[in-house]
Design brief:
The complex is a heterodimer of chains A (63) and B (447). Chain A has two helices and four strands. Chain A is an alpha+beta fold. In chain A, strands 1-4 form a two-stranded antiparallel sheet. The N and C termini of chain A lie close together (4 Å). Chain B is an alpha/beta fold and 447 residues long. Chain B folds into three domains: 179 residues, FAD/NAD(P)-binding domain (3-Layer(bba) Sandwich); 114 residues, FAD/NAD(P)-binding domain, CATH 3.50.50.60; 98 residues, 2-Layer Sandwich (Enolase-like, domain 1). In chain B, 24% of the residues lie in helices and 27% in strands. Chain B contains ten helices and 26 strands. Classes of the chains: A alpha+beta (63), B alpha/beta (447). The interface between A and B is medium-sized, with 20 and 28 residues.
Chain lengths: 63, 447
Amino acid sequence: MYVSLDRDRCSGIGICESIAPGYFEIAEDGSLQLLRDDVEPEAITEVEEAVRSCPTLALTLQR
Amino acid sequence: MAPTSSRPRADDSPRRLVIVGASLAGLRAAESARRNGYRGEVVIVGKERHLPYDRPPLSKEFLTDGQPPVFLHSTDALAGELGLRLRLGTAAIALDPDARRLSLDDDTTLTYDRLIVATGAAARRPSGLTDLAGIVTLRTLDDAVLLRSLLVAEARVVIVGAGLIGSELASSAGQLGAHVTLIDGAPVPLVRAVGVDVGRRLSALHAQRGIELICDVQIVAIEGHTRASAVVLSDGLRLPADVVLLSIGAEPVTSWLAGSGVAVNPTDGAIVCDEMLRTSVPAVYAAGDVAEWSNRIVGGQTRQENWSNANEQGAVAGRNAVTAGSPVAYEAVSYFWSDWYGQRIQFVGTADSDDVEFHELSSGHGGFVALYHQEGRLVGAAACNGQRLIMKYRRLIRDGASNDDALATLARSAGAAWERGRVTPAKQSTGSSARPSPAGEHAGRRR
């Protein structure tokens, strides 16, 4: 499973980082960094929640 | 955070889940019920005629950039993937919990096996105000469409209430070329949301952008025949106005529950829920702006009016309503964000604290982080252009971190950035008990 980021939609609100900090981190300039895009099986639940919780619908999961 | 680690078997007994309220909390409840294996009928009753839409842009990009509304799902996704039946443009007007039946304003009734109330809050209006054209509030998409037509260049706009929404509106109206005056009834705005120190600091942003803020005044009258023409203040000042925008908070929409037996807070009308989001009446749950609940992290009844609460609380209510025997508690560290004048303002946790400590960020635009302490623990954090740090604090607050943990996080982040010459750790500011951060100890280290 892979997570991808639409930078045009993302505004760096950061809810994803609070849910799955191993995958998402807001950088100094306020933009979101994907720390990795391949989702480990044990992290799928939290990454799914992060994707669902994005206020700007900027994250998607692909199998 | 919404717990999602296990997926319990859905209770087979409920046949119909009814959700009153078709905004974020209600939609999240429906999605969560499905995700947790519920296969029965889901009906969402919504007072507005629109498909569920996203509210945060209504005070910002929707006004300034002429963007279309952002709908949360397409009609096809709602009916198809989620299998929801939408009753839009329809309000619930009464609840009979013994018969498990709602009365709707189209003279029909609707029975349920489980009910989730997510009716939100409505913009407050001061009592005794004359109803004149040009006096507006902002809550719904229809409100925003009207407001967009009124906020034109050179319009004289008086915004009553310098809270988060009032401040966003001041920023947007200013950007559109309106002449904006912002007034607030308190000596310092935003105190309930972020406390006095941060409230004062943030409110100073208005003057820096040339928007006048007048505090500690009340509205005595709004003058005008059919249209508002001026606002008269308690200090005698008379402000000519084409638009009077009231942003003095919102009240839970619960008057329709009168006589139903659902317990509400006598002060603000919020539905009183336990930690599992159950109301005082069997089979009835509540979520979102309308609900107060027993929040273990804060240690008391709290009500939150923000996006992340509706998002997370709705999901827990939906899960608990359809899963038998294993309800989960809703435990959340509050989070809200607000954008004014190109500044990103963020807050996590609670402002109810012993002291507040400011740390200036040198990364530009007067950014800062403020840490709120209570009995040696970190309970809240505010940031202006401190996006890099704020979510780390949300997690620390959830985990019951100490002040030292909080400072170490700041130092780690500052240390890493310092090497790039961006952040000055722990420069003292207006905080009531600022102290130096042990930056050197952690400089260069990074999680």
